[in-house]
Design brief:
343 residues; GRASP-with-SPASM; elongated; single chain; 20% strand; Aldolase_TIM; Grasp-with-spasm system SPASM domain peptide maturase
């Protein structure tokens, strides 16, 4: 029997204009490869590897063999004489829920009930909450929100972006993920130091309990939309990768509430669908064509993004785009896929 060379089902490849990307969604790693190697791997899916190699000259064969060894050593691909036993991973997105994640903004001028907003959104079976507090709030206020989300059975993970205050010692912050295990990330801005507090041994669930203290000042939602690998805007999970292929990787199944209580796709976007203080449920809003259309803007239709090798793991942003175009490149993305450089 002849050997085939195929990628593991958890190794997902994306072709860009100048180079390609392999995302290992199991180990949360990414690898850049040449477009020539991408094309070679595509051909190898249906033909024995020696047959494919025979079509290349000696120098190219040596380069491809070296590349195959690299992929094999990094457990991204393997040889087999029976490729039919290794089907590709199912990339379909199946969810019975209209809303999966949300962002709630709040500051000292907000007069809507944040607890009511949590209740209404959780009734949609939203699993992931992010709170962005643009003013200082007391320890009691923050604790009330933490308790509310922790006790809500619908909510799986929460992320908090809060203003630093004097009561926020390192010891206090380190204890929060232990007291409230649903915390995925806690970002403390306007901090005296830049420091990352890794999750402790007691908080071993994947990617949970991370605390990031930053000296940056975050005043409002205009800080949204930064596209940069150092800002953790690359999501390498299988679910997010598959969603990004056909839907918008930021707005799909998302709902937002801005500081005034306005209901939006994201607090930073312009379209308003009502106010959280004046409604009893969100069903009619989240099921409307107008609301859902924002989440259906895939990277294949966005300028520049459609030829970028990072498009299937990038968070995207429709709130701030070049020339304010609906299908424009994210304004705060400083990556050039034509030169493969971060500016």
């Amino acid at each position: 029997m002849q050997d085939y060379f195929i990628l593991f089902s958890s190794s997902l490849k994306t072709k860009g204009v100048n180079r390609s990307l392999i995302t290992d969604v199991q180990r949360n790693h990414i690898f850049t490869i040449s477009n020539d190697l991408y094309d070679f791997l595509e051909t190898c899916e249906n033909r024995p590897v020696q047959d494919v190699l025979s079509e290349y000259d000696q120098e190219s064969q040596e380069i491809l063999t070296e590349n195959m060894n690299f992929l094999k050593n990094n457990e991204l691909a393997f040889f087999t004489n029976n490729p039919s036993k290794f089907p590709k991973i199912d990339k379909s997105i199946n969810s019975p829920y209209s809303i999966d994640n949300c962002i709630i903004d709040y500051n000292e001028t907000s007069d809507y009930s944040i607890l009511n907003a949590i209740n209404l959104i959780s009734y949609t079976n939203c699993k992931h909450f992010q709170f962005r507090f643009f003013s200082r709030f007391s320890q009691e206020f923050i604790t009330d929100i933490l308790l509310k989300t922790e006790k809500n059975d619908h909510i799986e993970t929460v992320e908090y972006i809060i203003h630093y205050d004097s009561y926020m010692s390192f010891k206090y912050l380190e204890m929060l993920p232990l007291m409230f295990p649903k915390i995925r990330n806690l970002v403390v801005y306007s901090s005296p130091d830049n420091k990352v507090i890794r999750r402790t041994s007691e908080v071993e669930r994947s990617n949970m309990g991370n605390i990031c203290m930053i000296s940056d000042i975050i005043k409002d939602d205009s800080h949204c939309g930064v596209i940069n690998p150092f800002y953790a805007t690359f999501n390498r999970s299988l679910e997010k990768h598959n969603s990004a292929v056909d839907f918008n990787s930021c707005l799909n199944r998302k709902i937002g509430v801005d500081i005034n209580g306005s209901i939006k796709n994201c607090p930073s976007t312009k379209e308003v669908y009502g106010n959280i203080s004046n409604i009893k449920d969100l069903d009619s809003i989240v099921s409307s064509r107008e609301f859902k259309s924002m989440g259906e803007i895939g990277k294949a239709n966005i300028k520049v993004c459609k030829v970028c090798e990072f498009r299937d793991i990038c968070s995207d942003c429709r709130a701030y785009t070049t020339d304010n175009e609906r299908l424009g490149k994210p304004e705060k993305c400083n990556y050039d896929p034509f030169k493969n450089v971060w500016n």
